[in-house]
């Protein structure tokens, strides 16, 4: 199996949508299916099952995926090392990130990095923590920009802390206060981000022994803020999320203060590509001062 087929197969596993994969590579969906049939014949077992929503990888396909990713990573590192020897910076970087980081911080880092290394292509995949961790574990991304949690099995590079804020409707009794007592969350109509799976928010609440009454949940933080502006409830979220948007909601620091710690996670610093390591150095230099 050649490297291009490996890449197409992994994209099919990640996206589970052959039409998107076909468009990305300039093929027709039937052309991608023919390629997969060829690979299946080479391997001697099926790789995907069709369903109404797209394709689902078989268990054997998922068992094969980590080895294909290792093969592509080794090829990428070899290409970048060879480029370094020739004095040419090239390659590609796939980055996982919280949406707030990719909106507020990464564009500035990418602009500075690309000015010095125009030959390096960069792809960003956004998701919630569980998605990012899964991508990092299976090495479909080279690094993740998210927050520190205990017992993380990766190389962690701290960047900066970000305060947790209370986000209140504009007519909330405490909208004009200097701070918001965290304990009051227990009696509020709470809007939970990330469909109830926001580990940064749940960690703050659990540490304080608070089990709020969840009135609504939404995957998008901006949707949560819009709901709060309409008086449907309140929430807490890190300050970075609230920046770059004209908010009608009241945004107050918590009492007592709470914060989350942003950084970069890599599966292994020793196995990271030269381009990835250089990008990390730009992020370490720039983000703490943003």
From TrEMBL:
Q: Which Gene3D superfamilies match?
A: 3.40.190.290, Winged helix-like DNA-binding domain superfamily/Winged helix DNA-binding domain (1.10.10.10)
Keyword Transcription regulation listed? The answer is yes
Which GO MF terms are attached to this record?
Answer: DNA binding; DNA-binding transcription factor activity
- Transcription is among the record's keywords: yes
What keyword terms does UniProt attach to this protein?
DNA-binding, Transcription, Transcription regulation
Gene Ontology CC: cytosol
Stored PANTHER family:
HTH-TYPE TRANSCRIPTIONAL REGULATOR BSDA, HTH-TYPE TRANSCRIPTIONAL REGULATOR YBHD
What protein family is recorded? Belongs to the LysR transcriptional regulatory family.
* Name of this protein: Hydrogen peroxide-inducible genes activator
